[in-house]
Amino acid sequence: MTCFPFSFGRKVPSVARHNPDIDEELSGIQNVRIFTYKELRVASDNFSQANKIGQGGFGSVYKGLLKDGKLAAIKVLSAESTQGVKEFMTEINVISEIEHENLVKLYGCCVEGNNRILVYNYLENNSLSQTLLGSGHSSNIFFDWKTRSRICIGIARGLSYLHEEVRPHIVHRDIKASNILLDKNLTPKISDFGLAKLIPSYMTHVSTRVAGTIGYLAPEYALRGHLTRKADIYSFGVLLVEIVSGRCHTNTLLPIGEQFILETTWELYQRRELVALVDASLEGHFDAEEACKFLKVGLLCTQDTSKLRPPMSSVVKMLTGEMDIDESKITKPGLISDFMDLKIRGDKKDGDIETKGSSSYNASSASDSQGNTMSFAASTSTTTTFTRKYDQSL
Ligand SMILES: Nc1ncnc2c1ncn2[C@@H]1O[C@H](COP(=O)(O)OP(=O)(O)OP(=O)(O)O)[C@@H](O)[C@H]1O
C-alpha cells in the first residue's frame, strides 16, 4: 500500500492517466495524496460492515487503518454524487490546503474509475449529534459546562477561519450537529466543508444534501436560495443553542409553539428567563452568566434580517468575552415556523408534513432553477417529508 503526493509524472489514477486535458489540470495540484482503490479496500477490510461507521447524504463512511499506521475515515461518495476527475480534483485541492485545529483534516482521495473516495483524519468521539444530542444520550461522554463552552468557541473559530481567512471564502452550507466531530480530547472539528461544491449542479434540485438541514436553515436561504456566509451564521446560532440546552433544534413531541428551540429561546429571552434553557443534566453546575451570554449570541446569529447577524470573528470575540454583546440588536429570530406554517398532522396529503413519531426530523430543502419551488425531501434518516410551493412575495 503506497501513499504518494499527487503530481504530474507520478503514478496517477487509471481514469486520468491518458487524458491530456486532465493531466494538464492535475499538473498544478501538489498537496493531495492519492490513494489507490486497492489500498483503501485493504485499509477498510474490503469496506466491511464491521468497519462501517456512518452513512451520510454523500455516501458511506468506513473506518480504516492506513499503511502508515494512521486511522482514517474513508468516505465513499455515492455514484450520484460523483463528477469528473477534473472538477473533483480542483475542489479536493482547495479543501486539502485548509488546515485548522477546528476543521477535519483531509488526508487525500481516490479517483479510480467511477470511484470518488475521500480519506479523512479519523476522530475518536463521533459527532455532536450522536453524543450530546443522541437519542437517550447514546454515548458515555458527559459534557460539562467547560467542555461545552470550549466546543462552542472551537466551532466558532473553525467557521470564522472558513469565512474570513480562507481565500476565496468558504460557505459551509450545512453547519449542524452531525457535521461536528470530536477528537479524543473532545476538540470539535467541522466536517464536510467544501463538499457541497463536489455535487454536480444538476443535482441541487433533487439533492437532500446541498441545501442544509431543516431546522438549521436561514429563512432567506430556505425561501430564496440566497446563500451567503450569513446563512452559515444562522445555522451556527441554532447549533449554539443546541449545545447549551442539550436539546435538538426540533422536538415534534412538544406542544405546537414549543417545538422549535429558537421559539422557546426567544420566549425565555423576553421573559428574562434564559437560564431555564440550560441543560438540566448539568444539575446547576455551570456559569449562568456565560451560558446566558451564549444563548444571546445564538439569538443574534439567528436574526431574521441577515445583516443583523454578526460576522463569525465577532461571534468568537463575544463568546470569549473579548467583545460585549449589544443587546439592543437582539430582536425576534427568524423562525422556520413563521414562514412554513408548519402543522404536524397524522394524515398525509400533498403539502402536509408527515411524522412518524420521532422526536426530531432531519429533512433538507432545495430550490429549482426558477427559484420558486421549495421541496423538503426525505433523506436516509428522515422522519418527515414536506413539499410546498411558496409564494414569491414571501
Ligand atoms: N473523520 C471522521 N472520523 C470519525 N467518524 C466520522 C468521520 N467522518 C464521518 N464520520 C462518521 O460517519 C458519519 C456520517 O458522516 P457524513 O458526514 O457522511 O454524514 P452526516 O454528516 O452524518 O450526514 P449528512 O451527509 O446528511 O450531512 C458521521 O456521523 C460520523 O459518525
UniProtKB/TrEMBL annotation:
Gene3D superfamilies the UniProt entry points to: Phosphorylase Kinase, domain 1 (3.30.200.20), Transferase(Phosphotransferase) domain 1 (1.10.510.10)
Binding residue positions for ATP: 75
Start and end residues of each stretch annotated as Disordered: 350-394
Residue stretches of biased makeup (Low complexity): 358-387
Source superkingdom: Eukaryota
Domain Protein kinase, residue spans: 47-325
SUPFAM superfamilies: Protein kinase-like (PK-like) (SSF56112)
Any one GO molecular function term: protein serine/threonine kinase activity
Keywords per UniProt: ATP-binding, Kinase, Nucleotide-binding, Serine/threonine-protein kinase, Transferase
InterPro entries the UniProt entry points to: CR_Ser/Thr_kinase, Kinase-like_dom_sf, Prot_kinase_dom, Protein_kinase_ATP_BS, Ser/Thr_kinase_AS
Keyword Ligase on entry: no
Coiled coil residues, start to end: none
Family per record: Belongs to the protein kinase superfamily.
Protein name: Cold-responsive protein kinase 1
Protein species of origin: Vigna radiata var. radiata (Mung bean)
Classification of source organism: Eukaryota, Viridiplantae, Streptophyta, Embryophyta, Tracheophyta
